[in-house]
User: Which sequence fits this backbone?
């Protein structure tokens, strides 16, 4: 039987890893839930953001926080551009899956061409810093990622529920025609949301660069677990994505502590199947 | 008549002087420079992807071998060209590229890629076309059932049992031998295979093994694995790590403020692990390191400085000739030995010669007369010591004593 210290440490590690899941899943959840676009290129964008963070750090000694000042607006514009393509060619929900898969493959090839398939590591003095609380160690960077996810998901939830644009976006997602009858200009607002989703991928990318070792194929390694996060957390719900991410992360951490680490990938899918069979009201 | 004789004698003297000058300046080698159509040797390496850090060492060693060969008499008097392609560390890409090398590029001979999965992929293609394939890093000999594959590194036919014995002998020789062991391994086949052997042989020798963990090759998050290692707090941590996995695990352990007492990494990228402050006194697998008695072996004197110069130029973190580099050097060495001995490029003729002969190499004598074309095993243990890898076990080839924390 694992000790309490081990279980607590694994739980903390899992919760913090889940914060990054939530951060990754937020943009995809909003895009899928409110724009009805399943954006697979979100993963590629996040990894591209990580590589740019790495490159700016390696070449110009730029701190990740400053890199984010460049990455977030650029990715916002990319998101707006991508949405223009969707609008122009009237891409529907299923079509978006195929188109964005193509964009993801394109971005992966671009990353591989520029940075090669080698592992890259953003070396930072904070990489191995952690804080001790009793017998438990709390890693700094994972904590920052989790806190960022909490702040962003909270702000996004407020934006969607307390502002006109947010309410209009939610109304359009529920019934575009009725929303339009009430004067909601869904087209203009959807550009803003698409840009925000892509910018969130950039934010996640900065933390991916700080926490993990980079390789282009990493794009696909996030796919399964983030899809589970998005579906369990309910489409279009930023708080749900965070809660689901943290829950899955915690379960993975505990599974790795109690069973074998190789079983961890099964956790997210098992939870997803359970939730889909259960079909709770919030889903 | 006498005029003719004088003239002829003068010519002999002049030729002798000219010849002597050429020899003294090193230009008049006894061998003629290679000429004619190059002999093309095809192969792939993981020049990109997760195995690239290690495969780069193989590339440098192979290029150095070809340079040495072409600066001498070449092969059968002809220059040698190495047609090297990037398999991206992916077996499916490896398979396609070997198909291309044989059918499109029409290379004369092939050499194996790096790492078990890619070698198995290439071996299937070699078998289909009846090509000899010599490789240096096939960690699971029993899977190499193709009759014309030859291992250039002395893994022996059963490293899953033999090598754990060597490692455990090594740590048992310490003043305070370990009583407990954790085995943590990548699911990469050649690592997992030895890990299972470590667990079994360890138990047979009376070690308690409270922790045996497997993780997926390419795992992102080592935090929970590190937590379990810390919790187990064993005397000896054995990690079936490839490439940078050892560094990643050590970083995760550092975040938990934990340092293993005695620690071992199976196939690490030698430079990055050596550079990690957390890897102090880490042990790892080897067949060759650039110190006596290995550095006195055949060909090392010439190879070692040339390899180092290239490695420095390529920005390799650890520039000494090491086991990985020696492996690919051996691949080319064995292949060209067979070609020179048989004066043939026919794969069947080369295979027949290799099976009958023992070749003295920088890893010691290599023969192919055992199961899966393996000769006796000679897997060694090396250790990080003062910024260098040093063989510490077995004692008869050790370059230093084992250090402990």
Assistant:
């Amino acid at each position: 039987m694992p000790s309490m210290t081990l279980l607590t440490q694994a739980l903390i590690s899992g919760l913090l890893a889940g914060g990054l899941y939530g951060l990754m899943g937020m943009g995809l959840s909003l895009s899928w839930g409110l724009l009805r676009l399943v954006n697979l290129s979100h993963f590629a964008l996040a990894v591209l953001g990580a590589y740019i963070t790495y490159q700016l750090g390696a070449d110009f000694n730029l701190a990740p926080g400053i890199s984010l000042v460049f990455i977030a607006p650029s990715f916002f514009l990319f998101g707006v551009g991508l949405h223009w393509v969707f609008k122009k060619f009237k891409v529907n929900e299923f079509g978006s899956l195929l188109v964005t898969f193509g964009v993801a493959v394109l971005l992966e090839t671009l990353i591989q061409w520029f940075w090669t398939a080698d592992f890259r590591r953003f070396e930072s003095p904070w990489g191995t810093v952690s804080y001790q609380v009793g017998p438990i160690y709390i890693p700094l960077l994972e904590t920052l990622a989790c806190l960022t996810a909490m702040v962003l998901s909270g702000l996004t939830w407020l934006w969607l529920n307390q502002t006109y644009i947010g309410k209009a976006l939610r109304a359009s997602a529920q019934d575009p025609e009725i929303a339009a009858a009430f004067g909601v200009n869904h087209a203009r607002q959807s550009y803003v949301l698409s840009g925000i989703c892509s910018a969130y991928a950039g934010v996640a990318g900065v933390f991916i660069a700080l926490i993990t070792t980079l390789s282009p194929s990493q794009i696909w390694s996030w796919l399964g677990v983030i899809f589970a996060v998005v579906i369990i957390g309910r489409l279009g719900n930023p708080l749900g994505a965070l809660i689901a991410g943290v829950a899955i992360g915690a379960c993975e951490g505990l599974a790795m502590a109690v069973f074998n680490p190789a079983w961890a990938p099964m956790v997210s899918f098992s939870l997803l199947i359970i939730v889909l069979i259960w079909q709770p009201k919030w889903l | 008549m006498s005029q003719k004789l004088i003239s002829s004698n003068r010519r002999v003297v002049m030729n002798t002087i000219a010849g002597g000058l050429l020899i003294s300046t090193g230009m008049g080698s006894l061998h003629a420079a290679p000429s004619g159509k190059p002999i093309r040797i095809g192969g792939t390496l993981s020049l990109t992807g997760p195995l690239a850090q290690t495969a780069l060492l193989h590339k440098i060693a192979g290029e150095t071998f070809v340079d040495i060969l072409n600066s001498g008499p070449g092969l059968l008097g002809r220059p040698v060209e190495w047609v090297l392609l990037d398999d991206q560390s992916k077996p499916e890409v490896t398979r396609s590229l070997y198909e291309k090398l044989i059918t499109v590029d029409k290379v004369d001979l092939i050499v194996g890629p790096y790492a078990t999965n890619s070698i198995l992929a290439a071996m299937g293609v070699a078998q289909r076309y009846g090509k000899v394939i010599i490789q240096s890093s096939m960690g699971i000999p029993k899977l190499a059932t193709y009759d014309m594959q030859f291992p250039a590194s002395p893994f022996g036919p059963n490293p899953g049992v033999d090598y754990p014995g060597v490692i455990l002998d090594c740590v048992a020789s310490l003043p305070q031998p370990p009583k407990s062991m954790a085995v943590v391994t990548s699911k990469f086949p050649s690592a997992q295979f030895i890990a299972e052997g470590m667990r079994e042989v360890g138990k047979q020798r009376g070690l308690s093994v409270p922790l045996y963990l497997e993780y997926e090759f390419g795992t992102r998050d080592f935090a929970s694995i590190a937590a379990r290692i810390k919790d187990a707090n064993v005397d000896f941590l054995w990690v079936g790590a490839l490439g940078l996995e050892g560094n990643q695990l050590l970083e995760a352990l550092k975040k938990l403020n934990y340092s293993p007492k005695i620690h071992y990494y199976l196939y690490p990228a030698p430079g990055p692990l050596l550079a990690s402050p957390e890897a102090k006194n880490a042990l790892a697998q080897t067949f060759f390191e650039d110190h006596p008695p290995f550095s006195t072996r055949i060909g090392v004197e010439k190879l070692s400085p040339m390899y180092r110069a290239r490695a420095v130029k390529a920005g390799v973190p650890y520039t000494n000739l090491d086991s990985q580099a020696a492996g690919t050097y051996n691949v080319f060495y064995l292949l060209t030995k067979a070609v020179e001995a048989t004066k043939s490029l026919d794969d069947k003729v080369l295979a027949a010669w290799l099976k009958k002969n023992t070749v003295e190499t920088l890893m010691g004598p290599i023969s192919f007369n055992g199961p899966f074309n393996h000769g006796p095993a000679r897997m060694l243990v090396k250790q990080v010591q003062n910024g260098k890898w040093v063989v510490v076990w077995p004692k008869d080839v050790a370059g230093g004593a084992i250090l402990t924390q």
